[in-house]
Amino acid sequence: MSRRRGELLTFVVEEVERKIRRLPGGRTHLLIGGQAVIEGVMMRSPQWTSTAVRCPDGAIRAVTEPHASLLLRFRWVRVPVVRGCVALYESLTIGIKALLLSAGMATGEQVPLTGRQVAATVSAGAGVALGLFFVVPAAVIRSLDVYFPNVYASNLAEGALRVLILLGYVAGIGRLPDVARVFAYHGAEHKAVNAYEAGAPLRAETARGFSRFHVRCGTSFLLIVMIMAIVVFSVLGRPPLVFRLASRMALLPLVAGLSYELIRAAARVPWLRPVVVPGLWLQRLTTREPDERQLEVAVRALRDVVEREDAAPSSGPSPAATS
Question: Is this model's pTM higher than 0.85 or not?
Answer without folding.
Answer: no
